[in-house]
């Protein structure tokens, strides 16, 4: 239900962001540890190739993005037992890649996956409102970042999030 409230706040221009500087790597490790304590079906493997993960963003909203993407990777890969998370950085951006060996998406599904209320047809009885990836994209967009998906139907998906380390000012 909180996703639904966040969607209405986004569309009304009232979703609040608390911008702070924090270490994305530390947040990612905390999120992964929480999953390890609560999920027994999958392990989450972190491949850290970063040097500097300091980022200026809304920590709670970025945590929401990470939780959504990792939980989707687990949910949509019921026959696999691992999800891979790769953290990389360059001088100006941080990149998080979340890879599963699950159901995958068709090309048409990949085009629509970030649309509000969209649910892929191959969902196999998996519950949801079709809001999570829409909300994820909106949060990333409001951080001047990007999200993309690479997927092969029947083999898995990779979601790639790119976020600027520092917010651009209009001054």
UniProtKB/TrEMBL annotation:
It comes from Olivibacter domesticus. Coiled coil: none annotated. Residues 1-167 form the Histidine kinase domain. One of its GO terms (cellular component) is plasma membrane. This is histidine kinase. It is found in: Cell membrane. InterPro entries: HATPase_C_sf (IPR036890), HATPase_dom (IPR003594), His_kinase_dom (IPR005467), Sig_transdc_His_kin-like_C (IPR004358). Its EC number is 2.7.13.3. Its main location: membrane. Keywords: ATP-binding, Cell membrane, Kinase, Membrane, Nucleotide-binding, Phosphoprotein, Transferase, Two-component regulatory system.
